[in-house]
């Protein structure tokens, strides 16, 4: 609801007594009861004033007519006065039956002159509350009765033309005044309708803006979830595999343990770095990149974690002092705070990382120049391959995965991953998953204008197949 609407709704009841009932009900339709218009204080005051005006007009007419025309029979004068009195009383029904009352009083005015005041009020009421065609009909009837009155009751000292002109002028004035009042009320209601329509449109725009903002936030959350899953899922699954190997093979040679510890440390470094990149995207554009001291602290924490897991010096695999990897890593990160995003050319390295984790992966790269692929296309293809390898590592450990990449400009890029389905009851790695990886890939492919399909084949393999558009 608009902030202006409560004030308007609260203001109508306080000001209702100042408004005509028809206008007040139109402004406050929820308070209207049935088809009848509720009279306001103003309506009662106007009705009393109209009744008194008609009585004064009738009394004045009686006094002047008795003095100027003493020859009128008393019976006729009494009937005329009774007609005038009944016409004044009937004015209390003018709001309920305006047309019928106006017609009856106009016809009575054919002979009675004491009902003229009530007739004027009735004509005014019809002009205020009824459309133009009805007003025109009643007005023509009033003009006709004026001619009839001049013919039936001629004035001895006044020409009939003057009587007709006076009667027509008075009737036209009453009708014109009523039409003016009607036009003013219609203008008032039209302005109110415009205000209400503007407020409604403003509320609709505000609601649409809120819905658009919620939609944008929802899409942003989904995009963040996809990025976090794609960035961390692969690295953490590698780390989990190597840590599990150390756990189940504690008597492995020292060199093998050192290599596994190095992979764990590197995977943790990469995961933290990629997480830092995602968080950096979520920050304000003016936020400063992560400082060298932050990188050093994160890297040092990773080294401590690695040593705690493997009880191997951090420099065992490289021959460097324990602090060297941290310093080198921190310096490298400081020199390049914005690491390049994954591209199609990074697939060989991704496959090699999976091989180091013990997977059997075959890469069939049928793209002539991977570096020519657009950045967004390469990033999406990389994420598809990354999630496919992670999915195979979790659910089909020990199977061979074939990664095939083909296509070119104009034909699109096809990324396909195949691996044999695990044997029924076969052991999985136990790495937890949210079950949203492939769903997120399908959404990512759709956003890129492509499509993704995945599922088991009749040949006993599980396939992930993505096609992405590659513009010329």
From TrEMBL:
Transmembrane regions: 44-64, 76-93, 99-127, 134-152, 158-180
Q: Which reaction does it catalyse?
A: ATP + protein L-histidine = ADP + protein N-phospho-L-histidine
Family matches, as InterPro entries: HATPase_C_sf, Sensor_HK_TwoCompSys, Sig_transdc_His_kin_sub3_dim/P
Low complexity bias: where?
313-327
Q: Which UniProt keywords apply?
A: ATP-binding, Coiled coil, Kinase, Membrane, Nucleotide-binding, Phosphoprotein, Transferase, Transmembrane, Transmembrane helix, Two-component regulatory system
The Enzyme Commission number assigned here is 2.7.13.3
Using the UniProt record, name the top-level EC class of this enzyme in a single word. Answer: transferase
Under the heading PANTHER family, the entry gives: NITRATE/NITRITE SENSOR PROTEIN NARX-RELATED, NITRATE_NITRITE SENSOR PROTEIN NARQ
Per its record, how is this protein called by name?
A: histidine kinase
